[in-house]
Each structure stands twice: as C-alpha cells, then as structure tokens.
Design the sequence.
C-alpha cells in the first residue's frame, strides 16, 4: 500500500510522497526514483538462451569453414562470442537510458550491415572457389571480431533494460557469457560435421544464414 503524507510547512498543492520519493506539484508527479522489478533466475536463464541463439546460428555457419583443428577453432569462437555477449549487457547496464536514444536508431542497421557483409563474402568465396581447390579452413580474426559485435548488439539492448530492473548484473552477465560459450562451441563442432560432408552447399547455407539473421534483426526493429 502506498502511504501519502504531507510535509510540515509545505505550500498548498505541494505534497511529498515519502514512500516513493515523489513530489506532487499542483497535481504533477515528479518521480525521483523508478520502481524496480526483481528478475528471477529462470527469467535470466531464458534471456541468456535467447540472446545466445544468434551466436549459435553464426557459430554453426562458421563451423562449416573449419577443416582442421576443430576444437581449437571452436574454443576461439566460443570464447570470442561468450566475451562479447557478456561484455555488451554490462556496457548497456552502465549506460542505462542515458545514451540509449543514440544507440537505438542505428543498432539494427549495424548488425544487419556486418552480418550481410560477412554472409555475402562467404557466398562469394563459395561460388568463386574451384571444385578441386583445397579449402583454407580458416576463420579470420577480423571477421570473428565483427561477428562477435554483430551478434551481441541485442545483448547491449538487454543490458540497457537491466538498468531499470532489480538485477544483480555480475551473475547475469556471467550466465549469459557461459551459455553463449557453450552453444557457440557446440555450433562450431556441429557445423564442422556438416561442412566436411557437404562443403560448398554448407558454405552457401552458412552465408545465407548470416544474411538471414541480419535481415531478421533489421525487420524486428523496423516493424516493432
């Protein structure tokens, strides 16, 4: 129950709500503190799985390019994506709503551009390669960093929302990072199995997956 009290000596029309730290001036409420809603561990788990879905799909698409040292490359991809997915919510949480108006209008365009660029490059390489040519089997560090940024932009938005909720941010970002690490490692391993059997179709499919994820992110924001 909310308790409204009037401060001694307050002028007419000026009421102080001691419970919510809000001030009524001639009927206009000015809130000095937002109400925070607690977030359960289950909800955090659902959010963590949700934001890691794109990382899993991208890891799957990159796994088809891996021909040797599968587990080493899977570890590198998983660490990169896990760190980005953990860092972005923390950045968003620290920024809160102060700079969200600058990020929100362009975040989906950035994600779409990066994913479409790398996906298009994969398609070009798949169609350009000679059927008898030996695959390089490499995931380039620069591409990996760009993919890490592109797949973690949604996590940045999640972090901004955390700033308005009763969330212990450190366990939350650790959970997001660990789940992303696990699904990314599995994604690369599964992608490798597919890629070794169906090299060119798998690479084409991987490029289309990246473009599809970028398009999905763009449409979700434009149609929201």
Sequence:
């Amino acid at each position: 129950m909310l308790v409204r009290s009037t401060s001694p000596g307050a002028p007419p029309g000026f009421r102080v709500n001691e419970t919510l730290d809000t001030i009524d001036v001639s009927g206009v409420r000015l809130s000095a503190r937002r109400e925070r809603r607690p977030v359960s561990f289950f909800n955090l788990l659902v959010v963590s799985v949700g934001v890691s879905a794109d990382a899993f799909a991208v890891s799957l698409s990159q796994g088809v390019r891996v021909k040797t040292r599968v587990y080493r490359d899977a570890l590198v991809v998983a660490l990169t994506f896990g760190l980005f997915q953990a860092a972005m919510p923390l950045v968003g949480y620290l920024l809160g709503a102060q700079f969200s108006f600058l990020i929100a209008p362009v975040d989906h365009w950035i994600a779409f551009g990066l994913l479409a660029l790398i996906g298009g490059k994969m398609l070009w390489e798949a169609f350009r390669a000679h059927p008898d040519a030996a695959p390089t089997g490499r995931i380039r560090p620069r591409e990996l960093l760009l993919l890490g940024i592109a797949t973690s932009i949604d996590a940045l938005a999640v972090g901004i929302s955390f700033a308005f909720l009763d969330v212990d941010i450190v366990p939350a970002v650790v959970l997001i990072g660990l789940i992303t690490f696990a699904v990314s490692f599995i994604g690369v391993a599964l992608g490798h199995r597919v890629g070794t059997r169906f090299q060119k179709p798998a690479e084409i499919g991987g490029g289309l997956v990246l473009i599809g994820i970028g398009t999905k992110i763009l449409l979700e924001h434009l149609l929201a």
Notes: The chain has two domains: 1-33, 38-222. DSSP finds seven helices and five strands in the chain.
